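User: quick one, sequence for these C-alpha coordinates?
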Protein backbone atom coordinates (compact mmCIF):
# COMPACT_ATOMS: atom_id res chain seq x y z
CA UNK A 1 0.00 0.00 0.00
CA UNK A 2 1.27 3.45 -0.87
CA UNK A 3 2.51 5.44 2.17
CA UNK A 4 0.19 8.32 1.33
CA UNK A 5 -2.76 5.96 1.30
CA UNK A 6 -1.68 4.57 4.69
CA UNK A 7 -1.45 8.08 6.13
CA UNK A 8 -4.90 8.98 4.83
CA UNK A 9 -6.40 5.88 6.42
CA UNK A 10 -4.46 6.19 9.68
CA UNK A 11 -5.65 9.72 10.49
CA UNK A 12 -9.38 8.89 10.39
CA UNK A 13 -8.71 5.70 12.39
CA UNK A 14 -6.86 7.60 15.15
CA UNK A 15 -9.56 10.27 15.17
CA UNK A 16 -12.22 7.57 15.44
CA UNK A 17 -10.40 6.00 18.41
CA UNK A 18 -10.10 9.34 20.16
CA UNK A 19 -13.75 10.08 19.52
CA UNK A 20 -14.72 6.67 20.87
CA UNK A 21 -12.56 7.14 23.96
CA UNK A 22 -13.99 10.59 24.55
CA UNK A 23 -17.49 9.29 24.08
CA UNK A 24 -16.90 6.50 26.58
CA UNK A 25 -15.57 9.01 29.09
CA UNK A 26 -18.58 11.27 28.77
CA UNK A 27 -21.24 8.58 28.74
CA UNK A 28 -19.67 6.72 31.67
CA UNK A 29 -19.76 9.78 33.95
CA UNK A 30 -22.09 9.46 36.93
CA UNK A 31 -24.79 12.01 37.75
CA UNK A 32 -24.07 13.40 41.22
CA UNK A 33 -26.22 15.83 43.22
CA UNK A 34 -24.72 17.87 46.05
CA UNK A 35 -26.78 19.87 48.56
CA UNK A 36 -25.32 21.89 51.42
CA UNK A 37 -27.40 24.55 53.21
CA UNK A 38 -24.89 25.45 55.94
CA UNK A 39 -24.66 29.01 57.24
CA UNK A 40 -20.91 28.45 57.45
CA UNK A 41 -19.38 28.93 54.02
CA UNK A 42 -16.23 27.10 55.13
CA UNK A 43 -18.33 23.95 55.49
CA UNK A 44 -19.60 24.31 51.93
CA UNK A 45 -16.08 24.95 50.59
CA UNK A 46 -14.95 21.51 51.72
CA UNK A 47 -17.80 19.73 49.96
CA UNK A 48 -17.63 21.97 46.89
CA UNK A 49 -13.96 21.12 46.40
CA UNK A 50 -14.94 17.47 46.01
CA UNK A 51 -17.88 18.29 43.74
CA UNK A 52 -15.69 20.32 41.37
CA UNK A 53 -13.05 17.62 41.20
CA UNK A 54 -15.71 15.04 40.37
CA UNK A 55 -16.82 17.30 37.51
CA UNK A 56 -13.22 17.52 36.28
CA UNK A 57 -13.12 13.71 36.28
CA UNK A 58 -15.99 13.61 33.80
CA UNK A 59 -18.97 13.20 36.12
CA UNK A 60 -22.09 15.32 35.71
CA UNK A 61 -22.30 17.33 38.91
CA UNK A 62 -25.03 19.60 40.27
CA UNK A 63 -24.24 21.58 43.43
CA UNK A 64 -26.93 23.39 45.44
CA UNK A 65 -25.77 25.82 48.13
CA UNK A 66 -26.41 29.36 49.44
CA UNK A 67 -23.24 30.75 47.81
CA UNK A 68 -22.71 31.82 44.22
CA UNK A 69 -19.71 30.65 42.20
CA UNK A 70 -17.53 32.58 39.80
CA UNK A 71 -15.60 29.53 38.61
CA UNK A 72 -17.08 27.84 35.54
CA UNK A 73 -16.36 24.17 34.85
CA UNK A 74 -17.58 21.70 32.24
CA UNK A 75 -20.10 19.20 33.68
CA UNK A 76 -20.60 21.44 36.75
CA UNK A 77 -23.98 23.05 37.32
CA UNK A 78 -24.42 25.48 40.23
CA UNK A 79 -27.77 26.33 41.81
CA UNK A 80 -27.72 29.13 44.40
CA UNK A 81 -30.52 29.44 46.99
CA UNK A 82 -29.62 32.44 49.22
CA UNK A 83 -29.96 32.23 52.99
CA UNK A 84 -32.38 34.32 55.01
CA UNK A 85 -30.79 36.52 57.73
CA UNK A 86 -30.01 34.84 61.05
CA UNK A 87 -32.03 35.64 64.14
CA UNK A 88 -28.81 36.31 66.09
CA UNK A 89 -25.60 38.15 65.24
CA UNK A 90 -23.08 35.47 66.13
CA UNK A 91 -20.13 37.87 65.99
CA UNK A 92 -21.62 40.38 68.43
CA UNK A 93 -22.71 37.59 70.77
CA UNK A 94 -19.24 36.01 70.87
CA UNK A 95 -17.47 39.34 71.38
CA UNK A 96 -19.98 40.64 73.95
CA UNK A 97 -19.92 37.53 76.14
CA UNK A 98 -16.18 37.15 76.39
CA UNK A 99 -15.75 34.07 74.22
CA UNK A 100 -16.40 31.65 77.07
CA UNK A 101 -17.34 28.04 76.39
CA UNK A 102 -20.60 28.72 78.23
CA UNK A 103 -21.42 31.30 75.56
CA UNK A 104 -21.15 28.59 72.95
CA UNK A 105 -23.28 26.22 75.01
CA UNK A 106 -25.89 28.96 75.44
CA UNK A 107 -26.24 29.82 71.77
CA UNK A 108 -25.89 26.25 70.49
CA UNK A 109 -29.66 25.49 70.65
CA UNK A 110 -30.38 28.52 68.47
CA UNK A 111 -27.65 27.52 66.03
CA UNK A 112 -29.09 24.00 65.76
CA UNK A 113 -32.52 25.47 65.10
CA UNK A 114 -31.10 27.80 62.45
CA UNK A 115 -29.39 24.91 60.67
CA UNK A 116 -32.75 23.32 59.81
CA UNK A 117 -34.44 26.49 58.53
CA UNK A 118 -32.82 26.81 55.06
CA UNK A 119 -33.38 23.13 54.19
CA UNK A 120 -37.10 23.60 53.60
CA UNK A 121 -36.57 26.75 51.53
CA UNK A 122 -33.91 25.01 49.45
CA UNK A 123 -35.76 21.77 48.73
CA UNK A 124 -39.05 23.53 47.92
CA UNK A 125 -37.41 26.09 45.63
CA UNK A 126 -38.51 25.92 41.95
CA UNK A 127 -34.91 25.31 40.89
CA UNK A 128 -34.46 22.23 43.07
CA UNK A 129 -37.94 20.91 42.33
CA UNK A 130 -37.15 21.18 38.64
CA UNK A 131 -33.91 19.23 38.85
CA UNK A 132 -35.58 16.52 40.96
CA UNK A 133 -37.99 15.95 38.07
CA UNK A 134 -35.20 15.41 35.55
CA UNK A 135 -35.73 12.00 33.93
CA UNK A 136 -32.05 11.01 34.07
CA UNK A 137 -32.12 10.95 37.87
CA UNK A 138 -28.97 10.86 40.02
CA UNK A 139 -26.51 8.14 40.96
CA UNK A 140 -25.44 9.71 44.26
CA UNK A 141 -26.46 12.39 46.77
CA UNK A 142 -23.72 14.21 48.69
CA UNK A 143 -24.66 16.52 51.56
CA UNK A 144 -23.13 18.16 54.63
CA UNK A 145 -23.66 17.79 58.36
CA UNK A 146 -26.63 19.40 60.15
CA UNK A 147 -28.69 18.71 57.02
CA UNK A 148 -30.35 15.44 58.02
CA UNK A 149 -33.69 16.51 56.55
CA UNK A 150 -32.13 16.45 53.06
CA UNK A 151 -31.70 12.68 53.40
CA UNK A 152 -35.38 12.17 52.65
CA UNK A 153 -34.56 12.78 48.99
CA UNK A 154 -32.98 9.33 48.82
CA UNK A 155 -36.41 7.68 48.73
CA UNK A 156 -37.27 9.75 45.64
CA UNK A 157 -33.90 9.62 43.92
CA UNK A 158 -33.28 5.97 44.86
CA UNK A 159 -29.53 6.50 45.18
CA UNK A 160 -26.92 6.15 47.95
CA UNK A 161 -25.76 9.04 50.13
CA UNK A 162 -22.40 10.40 51.28
CA UNK A 163 -22.07 12.99 54.07
CA UNK A 164 -19.11 15.41 54.19
CA UNK A 165 -18.11 16.39 57.74
CA UNK A 166 -15.92 19.55 57.71
CA UNK A 167 -14.12 18.68 60.95
CA UNK A 168 -13.49 15.82 63.36
CA UNK A 169 -16.70 13.83 63.84
CA UNK A 170 -19.04 14.63 66.72
CA UNK A 171 -21.46 12.12 68.23
CA UNK A 172 -24.29 12.97 65.82
CA UNK A 173 -22.06 12.30 62.82
CA UNK A 174 -20.69 9.09 64.31
CA UNK A 175 -24.24 7.84 64.87
CA UNK A 176 -25.03 7.98 61.14
CA UNK A 177 -22.75 5.02 60.45
CA UNK A 178 -22.30 3.68 63.99
CA UNK A 179 -18.68 4.81 64.31
CA UNK A 180 -17.32 4.13 67.81
CA UNK A 181 -15.91 6.93 69.94
CA UNK A 182 -14.56 5.50 73.23
CA UNK A 183 -14.95 8.03 76.03
CA UNK A 184 -11.55 7.21 77.50
CA UNK A 185 -9.64 8.08 74.32
CA UNK A 186 -11.86 10.40 72.25
CA UNK A 187 -11.78 13.92 73.75
CA UNK A 188 -14.84 16.12 73.54
CA UNK A 189 -14.24 18.95 71.06
CA UNK A 190 -16.31 21.58 72.84
CA UNK A 191 -14.50 21.09 76.16
CA UNK A 192 -11.11 21.61 74.56
CA UNK A 193 -9.66 18.35 75.89
CA UNK A 194 -6.76 16.49 74.34
CA UNK A 195 -5.74 12.86 74.46
CA UNK A 196 -4.29 11.19 76.48
CA UNK A 197 -6.55 12.33 79.30
CA UNK A 198 -5.94 12.13 83.04
CA UNK A 199 -8.59 10.71 85.37
CA UNK A 200 -10.02 14.19 86.05
CA UNK A 201 -10.19 14.99 82.36
CA UNK A 202 -11.89 11.67 81.66
CA UNK A 203 -14.50 12.59 84.26
CA UNK A 204 -14.98 15.92 82.45
CA UNK A 205 -15.14 14.04 79.15
CA UNK A 206 -18.08 11.99 80.42
CA UNK A 207 -19.83 15.24 81.38
CA UNK A 208 -19.09 16.55 77.90
CA UNK A 209 -20.56 13.39 76.40
CA UNK A 210 -23.80 13.91 78.33
CA UNK A 211 -23.95 17.54 77.20
CA UNK A 212 -23.28 16.52 73.61
CA UNK A 213 -26.14 14.01 73.79
CA UNK A 214 -28.45 16.81 74.93
CA UNK A 215 -27.43 18.88 71.91
CA UNK A 216 -27.85 15.78 69.74
CA UNK A 217 -31.44 15.45 70.95
CA UNK A 218 -32.07 19.08 69.97
CA UNK A 219 -30.32 18.52 66.62
CA UNK A 220 -32.58 15.54 65.90
CA UNK A 221 -35.69 17.36 67.05
CA UNK A 222 -35.29 20.33 64.70
CA UNK A 223 -34.17 18.15 61.80
CA UNK A 224 -37.01 15.67 62.37
CA UNK A 225 -39.62 18.44 62.34
CA UNK A 226 -38.32 19.72 59.01
CA UNK A 227 -37.92 16.19 57.63
CA UNK A 228 -41.50 15.23 58.43
CA UNK A 229 -42.85 18.44 56.92
CA UNK A 230 -41.05 17.68 53.66
CA UNK A 231 -41.33 13.89 53.76
CA UNK A 232 -44.53 12.80 55.57
CA UNK A 233 -44.03 9.59 57.59
CA UNK A 234 -46.94 7.83 55.88
CA UNK A 235 -45.25 8.21 52.48
CA UNK A 236 -41.51 8.12 53.22
CA UNK A 237 -39.11 6.20 55.46
CA UNK A 238 -38.85 7.40 59.04
CA UNK A 239 -36.31 10.08 59.89
CA UNK A 240 -34.08 7.69 61.88
CA UNK A 241 -34.15 5.20 59.02
CA UNK A 242 -32.99 7.87 56.57
CA UNK A 243 -30.14 8.86 58.89
CA UNK A 244 -28.90 5.32 59.35
CA UNK A 245 -28.91 4.59 55.61
CA UNK A 246 -25.97 6.90 54.88
CA UNK A 247 -23.40 4.87 52.92
CA UNK A 248 -20.24 6.79 53.81
CA UNK A 249 -18.98 9.77 55.79
CA UNK A 250 -15.94 11.82 54.75
CA UNK A 251 -14.16 13.44 57.71
CA UNK A 252 -12.04 16.53 57.05
CA UNK A 253 -9.62 15.48 59.77
CA UNK A 254 -6.17 13.90 59.84
CA UNK A 255 -4.46 12.06 62.65
CA UNK A 256 -1.36 14.28 62.38
CA UNK A 257 -3.31 17.38 63.46
CA UNK A 258 -5.71 15.97 66.01
CA UNK A 259 -6.15 13.12 68.45
CA UNK A 260 -6.06 9.75 66.62
CA UNK A 261 -9.42 7.99 66.80
CA UNK A 262 -10.97 4.74 65.56
CA UNK A 263 -12.87 4.60 62.26
CA UNK A 264 -15.01 1.92 60.71
CA UNK A 265 -14.71 1.40 56.92
CA UNK A 266 -17.75 3.63 56.27
CA UNK A 267 -15.96 6.66 57.76
CA UNK A 268 -12.95 7.90 55.81
CA UNK A 269 -10.40 10.56 56.82
CA UNK A 270 -9.76 13.12 54.08
CA UNK A 271 -8.09 15.89 56.09
CA UNK A 272 -7.27 18.87 53.87
CA UNK A 273 -9.82 17.93 51.21
CA UNK A 274 -10.25 21.56 50.14
CA UNK A 275 -6.51 22.10 49.60
CA UNK A 276 -5.37 22.23 45.98
CA UNK A 277 -2.21 20.34 45.07
CA UNK A 278 -1.64 22.97 42.37
CA UNK A 279 -2.82 26.46 43.47
CA UNK A 280 -5.12 28.43 41.18
CA UNK A 281 -3.88 31.78 39.80
CA UNK A 282 -4.51 34.64 42.22
CA UNK A 283 -6.60 37.69 41.27
CA UNK A 284 -4.23 40.13 39.59
CA UNK A 285 -4.46 42.84 42.25
CA UNK A 286 -3.87 40.34 45.06
CA UNK A 287 -0.92 38.79 43.22
CA UNK A 288 0.69 42.20 42.66
CA UNK A 289 0.11 43.16 46.32
CA UNK A 290 1.82 39.98 47.54
CA UNK A 291 4.71 39.94 45.09
CA UNK A 292 5.37 43.66 45.60
CA UNK A 293 5.78 43.26 49.37
CA UNK A 294 9.49 43.59 50.08
CA UNK A 295 9.17 42.19 53.61
CA UNK A 296 6.46 39.66 52.90
CA UNK A 297 2.71 39.47 53.56
CA UNK A 298 0.53 38.61 56.56
CA UNK A 299 -2.91 37.11 55.96
CA UNK A 300 -5.60 37.96 58.52
CA UNK A 301 -9.00 36.26 58.65
CA UNK A 302 -11.49 35.42 61.39
CA UNK A 303 -13.24 32.90 59.17
CA UNK A 304 -16.58 32.85 57.38
CA UNK A 305 -18.92 33.03 60.39
CA UNK A 306 -17.62 36.14 62.16
CA UNK A 307 -17.90 39.63 60.71
CA UNK A 308 -14.96 41.91 61.39
CA UNK A 309 -17.21 44.97 61.19
CA UNK A 310 -19.02 43.76 64.35
CA UNK A 311 -15.85 43.66 66.41
CA UNK A 312 -15.62 46.03 69.41
CA UNK A 313 -14.10 49.44 68.67
CA UNK A 314 -11.25 48.95 71.16
CA UNK A 315 -10.24 45.65 69.62
CA UNK A 316 -10.43 47.00 66.08
CA UNK A 317 -8.32 50.01 67.07
CA UNK A 318 -5.66 47.78 68.65
CA UNK A 319 -5.43 45.66 65.48
CA UNK A 320 -5.24 48.70 63.19
CA UNK A 321 -2.48 50.36 65.19
CA UNK A 322 -0.53 47.11 65.33
CA UNK A 323 -0.75 46.62 61.56
CA UNK A 324 0.16 50.26 60.92
CA UNK A 325 3.56 49.72 62.55
CA UNK A 326 4.42 46.58 60.57
CA UNK A 327 6.83 46.62 57.65
CA UNK A 328 4.92 43.69 56.14
CA UNK A 329 1.82 44.13 54.02
CA UNK A 330 -1.47 42.72 55.31
CA UNK A 331 -4.37 41.12 53.46
CA UNK A 332 -7.48 41.30 55.64
CA UNK A 333 -10.77 39.48 55.05
CA UNK A 334 -13.22 42.27 55.86
CA UNK A 335 -16.97 41.95 55.27
CA UNK A 336 -17.87 45.55 54.26
CA UNK A 337 -16.51 47.97 51.66
CA UNK A 338 -14.91 50.55 53.95
CA UNK A 339 -12.82 50.57 57.09
CA UNK A 340 -12.28 53.78 59.08
CA UNK A 341 -8.64 54.75 59.63
CA UNK A 342 -7.31 51.90 57.46
CA UNK A 343 -3.48 51.74 57.32
CA UNK A 344 -1.82 52.08 53.92
CA UNK A 345 -0.20 48.65 54.22
CA UNK A 346 -3.57 46.86 54.54
CA UNK A 347 -5.62 45.43 51.65
CA UNK A 348 -9.28 44.64 52.36
CA UNK A 349 -11.31 41.96 50.58
CA UNK A 350 -14.72 40.55 51.50
CA UNK A 351 -13.73 37.17 50.10
CA UNK A 352 -10.29 35.68 49.54
CA UNK A 353 -8.90 32.52 47.91
CA UNK A 354 -7.31 31.61 51.23
CA UNK A 355 -5.70 28.35 50.16
CA UNK A 356 -4.18 29.93 47.04
CA UNK A 357 -2.82 32.89 49.04
CA UNK A 358 -1.23 30.64 51.68
CA UNK A 359 0.47 28.71 48.89
CA UNK A 360 2.41 31.83 47.83
CA UNK A 361 6.02 31.76 49.14
CA UNK A 362 5.91 35.45 50.12
CA UNK A 363 3.26 34.85 52.82
CA UNK A 364 5.07 34.96 56.17
CA UNK A 365 2.27 34.59 58.73
CA UNK A 366 -1.42 33.72 59.03
CA UNK A 367 -3.44 35.40 61.81
CA UNK A 368 -6.62 33.36 62.18
CA UNK A 369 -9.39 32.14 64.47
CA UNK A 370 -8.54 28.45 64.71
CA UNK A 371 -10.90 26.85 62.20
CA UNK A 372 -9.82 23.35 61.24
CA UNK A 373 -9.85 24.15 57.52
CA UNK A 374 -7.56 27.14 57.86
CA UNK A 375 -5.19 25.25 60.13
CA UNK A 376 -4.96 22.43 57.59
CA UNK A 377 -4.21 24.89 54.76
CA UNK A 378 -1.53 26.67 56.79
CA UNK A 379 0.01 23.33 57.78
CA UNK A 380 0.02 22.05 54.19
CA UNK A 381 1.73 25.20 52.91
CA UNK A 382 4.10 25.57 55.87
CA UNK A 383 2.86 28.94 57.18
CA UNK A 384 3.08 29.62 60.98
CA UNK A 385 0.12 31.04 62.90
CA UNK A 386 -0.98 33.62 65.40
CA UNK A 387 -4.22 32.10 66.64
CA UNK A 388 -7.13 34.01 68.19
CA UNK A 389 -9.72 31.32 69.11
CA UNK A 390 -13.32 32.50 68.97
CA UNK A 391 -15.75 29.61 69.62
CA UNK A 392 -16.59 25.94 69.10
CA UNK A 393 -13.65 23.61 68.50
CA UNK A 394 -11.24 26.48 67.80
CA UNK A 395 -9.62 26.59 71.29
CA UNK A 396 -8.71 22.89 71.18
CA UNK A 397 -7.57 23.15 67.55
CA UNK A 398 -5.16 25.95 68.40
CA UNK A 399 -4.06 24.33 71.67
CA UNK A 400 -2.88 21.33 69.67
CA UNK A 401 -1.04 23.56 67.18
CA UNK A 402 0.56 25.61 69.95
CA UNK A 403 1.78 22.42 71.58
CA UNK A 404 3.36 21.41 68.26
CA UNK A 405 5.31 24.67 68.25
CA UNK A 406 4.09 26.52 65.16
CA UNK A 407 1.45 28.86 66.59
CA UNK A 408 1.28 31.64 69.15
CA UNK A 409 -2.19 31.63 70.75
CA UNK A 410 -3.65 34.93 71.94
CA UNK A 411 -7.04 35.15 73.64
CA UNK A 412 -9.07 37.97 72.14
CA UNK A 413 -10.09 39.11 75.64
CA UNK A 414 -6.38 39.89 76.15
CA UNK A 415 -5.85 41.43 72.72
CA UNK A 416 -4.21 44.85 72.86
CA UNK A 417 -1.78 46.68 70.62
CA UNK A 418 1.07 45.43 72.81
CA UNK A 419 0.01 41.76 73.05
CA UNK A 420 -0.81 41.43 69.35
CA UNK A 421 2.40 43.15 68.34
CA UNK A 422 4.38 40.86 70.62
CA UNK A 423 2.68 37.77 69.18
CA UNK A 424 3.41 38.80 65.58
CA UNK A 425 7.04 39.71 66.32
CA UNK A 426 7.60 36.45 68.19
CA UNK A 427 6.41 34.25 65.33
CA UNK A 428 8.18 36.29 62.63
CA UNK A 429 11.48 36.57 64.48
CA UNK A 430 11.75 33.13 66.06
CA UNK A 431 12.70 30.74 63.25
CA UNK A 432 11.54 27.71 65.23
CA UNK A 433 7.89 28.45 64.37
CA UNK A 434 8.55 28.17 60.63
CA UNK A 435 10.90 25.22 61.06
CA UNK A 436 8.30 23.31 63.05
CA UNK A 437 5.46 23.94 60.62
CA UNK A 438 7.57 22.95 57.63
CA UNK A 439 8.63 19.75 59.36
CA UNK A 440 5.01 18.92 60.21
CA UNK A 441 3.91 19.92 56.72
CA UNK A 442 6.03 17.08 55.36
CA UNK A 443 4.31 14.72 57.80
CA UNK A 444 0.84 16.00 56.86
CA UNK A 445 1.51 15.55 53.14
CA UNK A 446 3.02 12.07 53.51
CA UNK A 447 0.13 9.79 52.51
CA UNK A 448 -0.35 6.89 50.10
CA UNK A 449 -2.79 9.08 48.14
CA UNK A 450 -3.90 12.69 48.50
CA UNK A 451 -7.06 13.59 50.36
CA UNK A 452 -8.81 14.37 47.08
CA UNK A 453 -7.73 11.13 45.41
CA UNK A 454 -8.97 9.22 48.45
CA UNK A 455 -12.33 11.02 48.39
CA UNK A 456 -12.81 10.52 44.65
CA UNK A 457 -12.01 6.81 44.89
CA UNK A 458 -14.51 6.17 47.69
CA UNK A 459 -17.16 8.33 46.06
CA UNK A 460 -16.97 6.29 42.87
CA UNK A 461 -16.71 3.10 44.95
CA UNK A 462 -20.03 3.81 46.65
CA UNK A 463 -21.70 4.42 43.29
CA UNK A 464 -20.13 1.38 41.62
CA UNK A 465 -21.33 -0.89 44.41
CA UNK A 466 -24.77 0.73 44.69
CA UNK A 467 -24.33 2.15 48.16
CA UNK A 468 -21.70 -0.40 49.24
CA UNK A 469 -23.97 -2.10 51.81
CA UNK A 470 -21.08 -4.41 52.72
CA UNK A 471 -19.47 -1.40 54.48
CA UNK A 472 -22.44 -1.11 56.84
CA UNK A 473 -21.42 -1.56 60.45
CA UNK A 474 -23.80 -3.56 62.65
CA UNK A 475 -23.51 -0.96 65.41
CA UNK A 476 -25.59 1.55 63.45
CA UNK A 477 -28.67 -0.62 63.98
CA UNK A 478 -28.13 -1.17 67.69
CA UNK A 479 -29.51 0.76 70.61
CA UNK A 480 -27.19 2.29 73.20
CA UNK A 481 -27.81 -0.68 75.52
CA UNK A 482 -27.02 -3.21 72.81
CA UNK A 483 -23.99 -1.38 71.42
CA UNK A 484 -22.22 -1.32 74.77
CA UNK A 485 -23.55 -4.78 75.72
CA UNK A 486 -25.34 -3.32 78.74
CA UNK A 487 -28.21 -5.74 78.13
CA UNK A 488 -25.75 -8.64 78.11
CA UNK A 489 -24.05 -7.38 81.26
CA UNK A 490 -27.44 -6.99 82.93
CA UNK A 491 -28.34 -10.55 81.90
CA UNK A 492 -25.04 -11.93 83.17
CA UNK A 493 -25.43 -9.99 86.40
CA UNK A 494 -28.93 -11.44 86.78
CA UNK A 495 -27.61 -14.95 86.15
CA UNK A 496 -24.78 -14.42 88.64
CA UNK A 497 -27.04 -13.09 91.38
CA UNK A 498 -29.57 -15.81 90.63
CA UNK A 499 -26.85 -18.42 90.90
CA UNK A 500 -25.66 -16.88 94.17
CA UNK A 501 -29.24 -16.84 95.48
CA UNK A 502 -29.69 -20.48 94.52
CA UNK A 503 -26.48 -21.49 96.28
CA UNK A 504 -27.47 -19.47 99.35
CA UNK A 505 -30.93 -21.02 99.39
CA UNK A 506 -29.50 -24.53 98.96
CA UNK A 507 -26.96 -24.00 101.72
CA UNK A 508 -29.65 -22.76 104.09
CA UNK A 509 -31.87 -25.76 103.36
CA UNK A 510 -28.98 -28.13 103.91
CA UNK A 511 -28.04 -26.37 107.13
CA UNK A 512 -31.62 -26.51 108.41
CA UNK A 513 -31.90 -30.21 107.62
CA UNK A 514 -28.61 -30.89 109.33
CA UNK A 515 -29.43 -28.94 112.48
CA UNK A 516 -33.05 -30.14 112.77
CA UNK A 517 -32.26 -33.69 114.06
CA UNK A 518 -29.90 -32.33 116.75
CA UNK A 519 -32.61 -30.00 117.99
CA UNK A 520 -35.09 -32.87 118.17
CA UNK A 521 -32.62 -34.96 120.23
CA UNK A 522 -32.16 -32.12 122.71
CA UNK A 523 -35.91 -31.80 123.13
CA UNK A 524 -36.22 -35.52 123.86
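Assistant:
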Amino acid sequence: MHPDMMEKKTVPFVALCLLFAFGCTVTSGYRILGINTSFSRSHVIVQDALMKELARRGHHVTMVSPYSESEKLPNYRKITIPLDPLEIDLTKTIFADGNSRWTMFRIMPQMLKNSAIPIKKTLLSPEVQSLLREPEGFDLLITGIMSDAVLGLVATLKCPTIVVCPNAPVAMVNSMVGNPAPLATTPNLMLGLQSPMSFGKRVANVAGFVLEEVFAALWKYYQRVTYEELFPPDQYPAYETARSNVSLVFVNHHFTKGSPRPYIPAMVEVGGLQIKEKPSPLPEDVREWIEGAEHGVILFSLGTNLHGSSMPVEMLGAILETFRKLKQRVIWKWDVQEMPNKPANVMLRDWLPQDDILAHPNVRLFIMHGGLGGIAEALYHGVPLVGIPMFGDQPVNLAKVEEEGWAYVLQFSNLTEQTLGHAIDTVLQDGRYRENVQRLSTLFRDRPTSAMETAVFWTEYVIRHRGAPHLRYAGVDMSFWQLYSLDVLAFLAGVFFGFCALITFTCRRCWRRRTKPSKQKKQQ
